[in-house]
Design a protein that fits this description.
two-stranded parallel sheet, binds NADP nicotinamide-adenine-dinucleotide phosphate, seven-stranded parallel β-sheet, 16% strand
Length: 290
Amino acid sequence: MENNQYVTVFGATGKIGSALLNFLSAEGIPAIAVTRDKSKAVALPFVEWVVADMFDKDSLYKTMDHSNAVFLSSAMGNHFVTEQQQVIQVAVETGVAHIVKLSSAAVGSSIGSSAIAASHGAVEDYLKAAGILWTILRPTGFMQNWLGEFSQRVKSQRTIEEATGDGKRAYIDLRDIAEVAGTILKAPADHAGNTYMLTGGEAINYAQLATMLSAVAAGPVTYIPLTLEEGRQRLEQKGLPPWGVQTFMAYAEVQRNGDAALVSSAVSDILQKPARTAEAFVQDYAAWFK
Ligand SMILES: NC(=O)c1ccc[n+]([C@@H]2O[C@H](COP(=O)([O-])OP(=O)(O)OC[C@H]3O[C@@H](n4cnc5c(N)ncnc54)[C@H](OP(=O)(O)O)[C@@H]3O)[C@@H](O)[C@H]2O)c1
C-alpha cells in the first residue's frame, strides 16, 4: 500500500460489498476489503484483504490509513450503531476524505422509528456531524431477498406467502446498488452531501411477482396473502429477535397500506441506464425457482 487512493470496503463478504468489490476490481480501482474471517476472502485483482472487527476500534486503523474513501455497510446486530460510528471515527482520524454509507429507504419514512431504520438514522446523523464528506444510499427491499427460503418455497410448493396484501414496492436488484456505489466511489466529490433513495424502476406486488415466476418455475406460482398476525407468527417461528419482528412487520404494514410504492430515478440518473427489472431478475436467477 503505497498511496492514499484505496477504497476501503466494509461488508466486503456481504451481498452488496462483494458485488461492489467485483465492480472496483473490474475498474482497476485498488480496494481494501475488510472481513473478520480471512477464510471468507475471495482473491480479486486490485483487492487486498485485511482482517478487522468494526467492534474493535484499534483493529480499524490498518484498514483505512491508505484510503481516500470508505464504503460503510454491515449487517444489523446488537452493536450495529457503535460499530458503524467507530468506522466513521477512525476514518476522520486517519484523514479519509469521503464515506459512502449504505443505509435504508425506511429512514425518514413513516416507519423511521422502527428498529432497523432508527439504527441507520442514528448513524446517518452521526456521519453528517463528523466533519467528513459523505454520501448516503437508502435502498428499498432487495430482490435478492427472494433467494433462499422464499425461492425454496416457490420451488417446492409454488406459492408466495406474504403479509403485504396487494401493496406494491419498487424492489431493487442489489447489483444496481453496488454499481451505484462503485460509480460514486470513482468520483465521490461529485456526490458529496447527497442522500439517494434507491429503488427499482417500477413498483410491483406479490401477485405480479407470482405471474413473473410462473414463467420460470416448474408450473404456475400462486400468491397466498397472509394476515398481519400470520405474518408475525412466521417471523417469530423463524426465531427472529423482537426488533427484527417489529421492523419486518412495520415494512409489511406500510406496503399493505400502499405507502411503499415510491419510485426514485436515482439509479437511472447515476448509472445512465434503467434500473434492472423484476422480470430480468427472475430470468437471471431462474435456476433458484425451478
Ligand atoms: N436486505 C434488504 O432488503 C435491505 C434493504 C435496505 C437496506 N439494507 C441494509 O443493507 C445492509 C447489508 O445487509 P445484508 O443483510 O445484505 O448484510 P450483508 O451485506 O450480507 O452483511 C454482512 C457483512 O457485514 C460484515 N460485518 C458485520 N459485522 C461486522 C463487524 N463487526 N466487523 C466487520 N464486518 C462486519 C460481515 O463481514 P464478515 O462476516 O466477513 O466479518 C459481512 O461482510 C444492512 O445494513 C441492511 O440494513 C438491507
